[in-house]
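Sample intake sheet
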Amino acid sequence: MRQKIFKHFIDILALNSTQRVWQLPFFIALGVGLVLGVGAYYKRLDLGLISMIGVMAFLYIPNTPMYHRMAVVMCCSFGISLSFLLGLLTHLAPTLMPILVGFVAMASSILVRYYDVGAPGYFFFVFACLLGSFFPFEIQDYIFLTGLVTLGTMVANFIAFIYSLLVIYCFKNSLPKPIPKRGNWGFEVIVVDSVIIGFFVGFAVFLGAFLELERSYWVAVSCTVVMQGISLNGVWIKQIQRILGTALGTLFAWYLLKIEFSTISFVCLMMFLVFMTEFVVTRNYAIAIFFLTPYVTYLAEATSFMNVDANLIALARLQDVIVGSILGLIGGFVIYKPFLRIPFEQISKLVFRKKI
């Protein structure tokens, strides 16, 4: 027992080796700086923060031939913009929000797994949908807001093209690998697991609203992240890392929220946070969450642009993350325990017309 506990402790704190090149976090930070810089120029940093949602499409760039890299980024760009728009449309029928968010989680997980896109998985599709669902904008602004996200995806495609040219032909440290085969993971992983994920993410939205939690979208975000563990042990480790990283990151965010940054300082801060997040995320998830927490807190508060109580934000974030992480762990048990998967397998085979 002591050895198992010690091993878990080592896994939580370990710095893993990675093949990620430094240019990737550099270029995502550059993309964030571009959209925030434009927002700062027009004195609308809040709009720049919304555009940052689209910039995240850059993170889906695979290590494949040039034409395939750009095709994947463009497809993911469309998916993120569509997910954000679907999130906005939930304001027309709030009771359908858990169903729609769950559907986005299921559909994006199926597509990401079928095409073997890899990290960051279905996360940013769900994140975009959740932010759209909770942003308090008027109906007449929906097209404008979706356009802002789409502009962010255009920046993502631009930096993806420059990044690919550099790492393939100049630095030669990310040479193309063969394109992954489609559907190689099988029906159980691609469809059944995705149906389970969609159910728990949708339930997380419902649970957050039912418990009337402040900033309840963090429940669904946390559930989404934790369920991306590649094994049951991976789900458990990721849950502990997320709670630990969020606890420390929330203190860091609380400290930053107390500071009144100048426009240029704020842009540099966001670039630093996203750079550090992507630089260490494949090395240690807890450290990455430490930097990610203030970054996404600013992003999620784009509409109010931090004109709220920092103590309220920090406390609500921590509470919601703990609830969502526990729910994600339960979802992980369902995914990796065969006897708990049976109802979801039957539903999946019925819906997708697969012979039992």
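Comment: The mean pLDDT is 87. Residues 142-170 form the longest helix (29 residues).
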